Amino acid sequence: MSDKRKIVVTSALPYANGDIHLGHLVEYIQTDFWVRFQKLRGNECVYVCADDTHGTPIMIRSRKEGITPEELIARSHAEHLRDFTDFQISFDNYYTTNSPENKALSERIFAAMDSSGAVTRKSTPQLYCEHCKMFLPDRFVKGTCPKCGAENQYGDSCDHCGSTYGAEELGAPKCTTCGATPVVKDTEHLYFELEPQHDYLEKWIPGHTTSDVSNKLLEWFKEPLRGWCISRDAPYFGFEIPGHPGKFFYVWVDAPIGYIASLQNWCEKNGRNLDDYWPSSHGGDESAVELYHFIGKDIIRFHCLFWPGMLHAAGFKGPNKVFVHGFLTVNGEKMSKSKGTFVNARTYLDNLPPEALRYYYAAKLGGTTDDMDLNLSDFVQRVNSDLVGKITNIASRGGQMLQKKLGGVLGSLDDEGRALVGKCREAGDTIAKFYEERRFNQVVVEICRLADAANEYFDRREPWKTVKTDPETTRVTLTAALNAFRLIAIYLKPVLPAYADKAMALFGETEWNWASLAETRENCALGPYEYLASRIDSKQVDAMIAAATVKPGDSGEVSHESRASKNKSAPVVHKTIDVPQIKPEIAFGDFEKLDLRVGVVEACEIVPKSSKLLKFTIDAGPLGKRTIFSGIRGAYPEPSALVGKEVVFVANLAPRKMSVGTSEGMILYAGEPGISGGVVSPFASAGAGTPVT
After folding, report:
1. Element spanning 248, H or E
2. How far apart are CA 116 and CA 130, in angstroms?
3. 409: DSSP letter
4. Are 614 and 682 in contact (CB under 8 A)?
5. What per-residue confidence (pLDDT) applies to 577?
6. What is the pLDDT of residues 44-78, one digit of tens each?
7. Could you tell me if 113 and 310 are in contact, meaning their C-beta atoms sit under 8 angstroms apart?
């Protein structure tokens, strides 16, 4: 029996009413990493996506431009696909939700939901703009939050306090299109009732999401689940609901169904059966295929509550896992048009190579819901020092010397070279584990360690000297260094596919897969050397920022969230503290003795009879599991919030026996001593903080 996996992967659908930007790319690039890794491993992995094309914004924008909605979404589709392709994101099928497949599937799923008794009809008060002659969707009305009083909030939820409500509950509502004050009118809508699935969803969520996501979602289950309005009134660009003239499917109904529609379109193009890839009550084996969604944390409710509820009611397989990521900040702040940090994909591509961003995103993404920061100075430094100066440097020095001085022919490995190549090969299982867990930053860490070893070997053997006196010894040196680089390039293939293709051509090969790691290139000719990566200049970044900067008055601050709302951080409270005394200086050699590693918190629990200690179980990758006690309970009364977080810990600290158990390391924390911590030892008597990640 084959152990090859059959996997279907989706990313959230980009809305057809705007351009792709660097915030969006956090999702699509990391999904592409994961999909390419699965294919490199030999698994059958189908990556589908589509433009999200329905809703009032599309209708209004097309009217303003004097074109049809179909013309608008066709133009957007072409632009989106061009941007994705130029960023080397490889969909197996990139489709549209405005398709016959999606219409038929939406009607089929609705009919199944309706026949199961999950759909009800209610007369609902809704805001109506008499100037625009239309009922106002949630995002076309703003007013004062009925819960906390925050102004300028949308009609479905409050960005300030996180409350949800009906648009008619807003204080001082205004139509966002014309500014008129709407009136309240009754209209009948269709609702998908979630409460009958209360028990099913309460059990489903913890098994299909990470603990921090499930803990947040399960807060909704402390009371009966409210019905979800799944219809919208005309005028509306979308699919009309069968049997309900003038009523249209709410965009969030047919958008996720678009995943299945895109997959069906792929199946039809490739002679496959949809039920074999997305099983339903019509057929298919649920255990034979794995389904995974990659989404941002702003649309968790739709993908982890409404969507699995719809699929369950309609008899379709639900996702095996929903992978949730955080938002993108730039230089530590919200993306901003006025500062030039709200950068469209095309603006980036006009100034910088796509490989640089793919590499940097890989170096920062850890498989958690934490926000990711694109620090532009760090971006330049890391790409130049690591990708170019450390990794590519091996091929550049070795390949060019071999071709110019030694006829471009590889030799054989000696014992020292075989040890270097063996070290690189042995890292494969660890790197594969990190890829599978979406800990791409750890993939990069491991690759850089291998590159360090290869460069150290190269420098120690000094081939630039021996080539003048002992060409064959030099050939042996370059053969080992280049074989080490070849393995590194294979590991990098999911992150840098075009880069890896050039490296593959250098070795005269036509295809790499995970099994290629077992091969060694000896006594064969090297292909022509092609420059793999070039240094980037801060001037290129400056030019990009200048091109993205919007003049004052033209635009405000913009985040990259989708139509669902995102909670803002709580306001910062500044406190006066005593500055601690700096401890005596130590020599750098003492600091070098510390072995700092990154681990993932698998479990975190309160230590009974202790007011300060938390007990951590850390997944330390190749080092195995570690138990560490840390005195930070004051900052984390709910220790489950730390599960899934990455922490830096001292790996070579001698274990210490405590009354509550043995602590096998020290986690580093940053903050203000006595308030939000400092660098806190597991043996500290007090303190709390934020894990250093």
Report:
1. strand 247-249
2. 37
3. B
4. no
5. 29
6. 999 999 999 999 889 889 988 999 999 999 999 99
7. yes
Residues 6+ apart with CB under 8 A from 153: 142, 143, 144, 145, 159, 160, 170
What is the identity of the amino acid at 206?
P
Question: Closest Cα partner for 254 from 95, 70, 11, 53?
Answer: 53
Q: Encoding tokens for residue 524? A: 């064969």
Closest CA to 346 of 634, 40, 656, 86: 86
- For tokens 């290629």, the residue is 516
Mean pLDDT, rounded, for 257-261? 98
> Partners of 174 in the beta sheet?
142
For residues 397 and 577, the model is more confident at: 397
Residue 441 φ/ψ, nearest 5 degrees: -60, -35
Q: Is the model's pLDDT at 376 over the cut of 50? A: yes
* Cβ–Cβ under 8 Å, residues 424 and 488: yes
Question: In degrees rounded to 5, what are phi and psi of residue 627?
Answer: -105, 125
Residue 555 pLDDT exceeds 50: no
Per-residue pLDDT of 325-339, as tens digits, reads: 999 999 999 999 999
pLDDT tens by residue, 265-274: 999 999 999 9
Q: How far are the Cα atoms of 26, 211, 314, 529, 560 from residue 326, in angstroms, in the given order?
A: 9, 15, 30, 39, 11
CA distances in angstroms from 419 to 150, 429, 457, 464, 551, listed in the order given = 64, 17, 11, 22, 58
Extract the tokens encoding 562. Answer: 């989708």
Q: Which residue has the tokens 């639900």?
A: 318
DSSP 8-state assignment for residue 220: G
pLDDT at 427: 98
The residue-averaged pLDDT of 488-497 equals 98
b/e string for 92-108 if b means 16 or more Cβ within 10 A? Answer: bbbbbbbbebbbebbbb
Give dist(CA 327, CA 641) in Å, integer.
18
Structure tokens at 372: 């990711």
Can you tell me the mean pLDDT for 17-40?
A: 97
H helix or E strand, kind and range, residue 325:
strand 321-325
Q: Provide the 3-class DSSP secondary structure of residue 552.
A: coil
